């Protein structure tokens, strides 16, 4: 007989917590679930890391329906990634979000792995160092995903007095903002003179040690587009 989710304590606890949460919400606002079932109108697209310590709705005290979300390893936005491009297109064109947040976080393991790989000495006849030790080596999906971040680290000098990890967490966020702003979706939004509200792209970093979000002050909007 095949197992069911409740056979596993961690999942049984998850389902129990969900039932209690739904009951609590329904007790406070009986219209909440019927209203959210009718559609969503988030104002924010959150592009963040998949790290379990950075749940966007929890750390911003946001209710369901407030934030549209795309998360992955190290909060990267690749221009060749149809998944990310589809999320961006749907969020901007269909949901009409007003703000896109690219959010990194302190102590990011993905960024640290890329720093380590970039710093590894290159030895003759030896495979190039990769962020993670995967059986497939440099051809592993995880390592291929992180190639642009390794290249960013190799090409960028850490300013004197700056912690390398903190610096590259911020630099990566800035690089992802640049990629988002290169997309056809953003260009079309910014170039459309008939739109009353155009989307803005922002960069932030979440501090795991304090629970606070830091605005990097690198926001970009349609005024940065030369048309």
TrEMBL record:
Stated role: Reversible hydration of carbon dioxide.
Enzyme Commission identifier(s): 4.2.1.1
Gene3D superfamilies: Carbonic anhydrase (3.40.1050.10)
Pfam assignment, any one: Pro_CA
Membership in a protein family: Belongs to the beta-class carbonic anhydrase family.
Biological process terms in GO annotation: carbon utilization; cellular response to carbon dioxide; cellular response to oxidative stress
UniProt binding sites for Zn(2+): 49, 51, 105, 108
PROSITE patterns: PROK_CO2_ANHYDRASE_2
Record organism: Gloeophyllum trabeum (strain ATCC 11539 / FP-39264 / Madison 617) (Brown rot fungus)
Cofactor: Zn(2+)
Keywords, alphabetical: Lyase, Metal-binding, Zinc
Record InterPro entries: Carbonic_anhydrase, Carbonic_anhydrase_CS, Carbonic_anhydrase_sf
Protein name from the UniProt record: Carbonic anhydrase
Gene Ontology molecular function terms on file: carbonate dehydratase activity; zinc ion binding
Catalytic activity: hydrogencarbonate + H(+) = CO2 + H2O
Cofactor binding mode and count: Binds 1 zinc ion per subunit.
């Amino acid at each position: 007989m095949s197992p069911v989710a409740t056979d596993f304590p961690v999942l049984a606890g998850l389902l129990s917590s969900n039932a209690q949460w739904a009951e609590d919400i329904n007790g406070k606002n009986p219209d909440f679930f019927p209203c959210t079932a009718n559609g969503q109108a988030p104002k924010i697209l959150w592009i963040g890391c998949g790290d379990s310590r950075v749940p966007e709705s929890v750390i911003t005290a946001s209710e369901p329906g407030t934030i549209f979300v795309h998360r992955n390893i190290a909060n990267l936005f690749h221009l060749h990634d149809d998944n990310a491009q589809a999320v961006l297109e749907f969020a901007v064109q269909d949901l009409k979000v007003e703000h896109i947040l690219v959010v990194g976080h302190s102590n990011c393991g993905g960024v640290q792995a890329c720093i380590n790989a970039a710093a590894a000495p290159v030895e003759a006849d030896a495979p190039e160092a990769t962020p993670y030790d995967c059986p497939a080596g440099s051809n592993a999906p995880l390592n291929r995903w992180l190639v642009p971040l390794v290249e960013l680290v190799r090409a960028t000098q850490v300013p004197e007095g700056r912690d390398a990890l903190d610096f590259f967490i911020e630099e990566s966020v800035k690089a992802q903002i640049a990629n988002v702003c290169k997309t056809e979706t953003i260009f079309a939004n910014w170039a459309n003179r008939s739109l009353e509200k155009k989307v803005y792209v922002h960069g932030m970093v979440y501090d795991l040690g304090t629970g606070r979000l830091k605005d990097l002050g690198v926001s970009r909007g349609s005024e940065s587009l030369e048309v």
